[in-house]
Amino acid sequence: VLDILNIDTTEVLSAASTKWNFMNLKPGLVGGHCISVDPYYLVQRALQAGYKPELTLTARKVNNSMGYYVADQVIKEMESVGCLLKQSKVLILGFSFKANSSDIRNTKVIDIYTTLTDSNISVEIYDPLVDRSKVRSQYNVELITRHQLLLKTYDVIILAVKHRFFEEINLRSYLNKKGFVYSLQNNELMSSNDLEASHE
Hints:
Radius of gyration: 18 Å
Largest sheet: 5 strands, mixed
Order of helices and strands: HHHEHEHHEHEEH
Helix content: 25-40%
CATH architecture of the domain at 67-198: 3-Layer(aba) Sandwich
Strand content: 5-15%
Number of strands: 5
Strand order of the largest sheet: 2-1-3-4-5
Shape: globular
CATH class of the domain at 67-198: Alpha Beta
């Protein structure tokens, strides 16, 4: 809804944070084995009792679609800046389902990856915290290594999981001149020039 109304999510959260008891939860992907799975136990029990828990079902529907939504937003931005999708290279930073964790259960990053690759975009994923062999066997995706990362630049970088490790990376050095960064946590786009200015 905020996107349709052109309302800045970070501004809403900043305003809401002036309330003393506000819990400042940031946007992002909801994966893992708890929030993405456990609500369905409650849903099933409620249905057995003759009640349809619309709010719970809607929340799960929205959260389950977020990976696809992010990919669609990135594709729209790529097209608006003149990127040719079949010639573009995208880097996704992070594959685990939450920050500073190696847990890849039910990660929604895979939805971003598959949506982009289905559009014939070349996509690579880098996450130094996860077990690359587990990602390969469970998701059929080959993560790149730090050495491979150092040799490349990209048209788009998607900061999918906010590992502390990524805060130490100069994203500008991995971005092509007209490229941009999409940050899920801040729900924002940063151009190559924006990143350069932030490091001055």
